[in-house]
Amino acid sequence: MFDPSGLPVVAEDQDTHPKVQELRELSLWSEAHVWCSPERHGAMTGLVKTQIDWLPLAPIGGVRPTQGRTLAFMQVCGGSQSFNTVNQLRILGRWMRMITIPNQSSVPKAWSEFDEDGRMKVSLYYHRVVDVMEELMKFTLLTRGCSDYLVDRYSERVETAEDLSARVNLSDATGGTGDDKKDSL
User: Which residues does 133 contact at the CB level (< 8 Å), separation at least 6?
Assistant: First the structure.
């Protein structure tokens, strides 16, 4: 689990902050993520979004910290049940090329679903949380060893037109115009 206490607001000069490094290392270490947020004002909290924003889309050392990992979503609500937050989290997970599981959990009136020790009471909502976690484990096991294949993109494998032209255009090396080589290609 990642404790976001002390995580700075996203800024370019904070990449080396210890909490940012901890979050990124945990993401790289993981095979799966569970994103859970309270719903406030009909949306995920800013702190949850900040954590997600610190996980870059671009590779770190050649590895994307989220791509190919399985992902589950949960939310807790202070009042009536809503699915706004899990829907927002699902969009972000897909955008980050994570393997999002179909199931999700939303716990309404969360204040009444936990005992004095902070443990969730056995209820239909508890069963749903267990269902989500079981499904996450199943998808993680099913995709283990093949997630790189599942998220492999043609568009990322092909060279840009400029790269291809630079590699095959021999006119620069021979001093020619390149026109005489078109017929031989």
Answer: 34, 72
The H-or-E segment that residue 140 falls in is: helix 124-143
Identify the residue whose tokens are 């910290």: 65
Element (H, E) at 75: strand 70-76
Helix/strand/coil for 74? strand
* Rounded-to-integer distance, Cα 14 and Cα 24, Å: 13
The kind and range of the H/E element at 33 are strand 32-38
Low-confidence ranges of the chain (pLDDT < 70): 62, 159-161, 164, 170-185
Single-letter residue type at 158: V
Residue for token pair 């020790």: 117
- Chain centroid, CA 170 distance in Å: 42
What confidence score (pLDDT) does residue 171 get? Answer: 55
* Topology (CATH level 3) of domain 12-171: Rossmann fold (3.40.50)
pTM: 0.78
Nearest to 35 by CA among 115, 110, 132: 132
Tell me what pLDDT residue 92 has: 94
Question: Domain-by-domain residue ranges, the chain?
Answer: 12-171
